[in-house]
Amino acid sequence: MPMPTPAAPDAPVAPLAPRHRENPWLRRALLFVTCVVLADALVGDRGLGETIRARREYRLSAAAVTALRDDNAALREQVRDLQGDPDAIEAIARKELGLIRPGEVLFLLKRVQ
Known about the structure:
The protein contains three helices and no strands.
């Protein structure tokens, strides 16, 4: 591509076309709309704060569900034990209901303070 040759120093310079200036109100309006959208994204109904709170609630709920599943598994195991093991039934009857076998003697000890 050939380089343009410089114009002679005494040659008339062509006037530049007048530059089109943007409307300052348009720029201000765009800035205002951008600020409103940004503020809504940060503090609106579905903003950043709400998203963080929802994620925290989700983690807590997931932990609670995991704990409940573990409890359910332990209860299922206890049900299996109680259905097939008479000694387990007896242990619970003695512990929770205070039952004794015929012929056994029950001693109640009082703590003196």
